[in-house]
């Protein structure tokens, strides 16, 4: 899991599955997945199987603010142990280009440093 994502112990136990699912959900304007783009800030999984994800977008005018959270909910509910999912969108702290992963930078043609 990325060091810049706050994750509790229950979610950390299934982090590989979480990452796989998040890497399939793309920001259509940037054409990079939400995980490598750095849009995910926090993932928490409770005892009842509820997963709460805190995320942002690259810009407040992003056209996918309605669709991407729905895609995340549907995708994460397919993971064993997750019964329900909620997505909280936050604008603080604001997303910065420095949140893009090394892989994401290479994919976008940006210097990986």
From TrEMBL:
MIP18 family-like domain sequence ranges: 17-89
Which Gene3D superfamilies would you find in this protein's record? Answer: Fe-S cluster assembly (FSCA) (3.30.300.130)
This one is known as Probably aromatic ring hydroxylating enzyme, evidenced by COGnitor
């Amino acid at each position: 899991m990325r060091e810049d994502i706050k994750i509790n112990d229950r979610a950390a136990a299934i982090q590989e599955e979480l990452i796989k699912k998040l890497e399939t959900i793309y920001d259509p304007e940037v054409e990079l997945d939400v995980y490598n783009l750095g849009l995910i800030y926090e993932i928490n999984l409770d005892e009842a199987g509820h997963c709460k994800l805190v995320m942002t977008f690259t810009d407040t005018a992003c056209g996918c603010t309605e669709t991407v959270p729905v895609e995340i909910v549907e995708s994460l509910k397919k993971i064993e142990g997750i019964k329900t999912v909620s997505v909280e969108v936050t604008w603080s702290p604001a997303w910065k280009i420095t949140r893009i992963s090394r892989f994401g930078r290479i994919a976008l043609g940006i210097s990986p440093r």
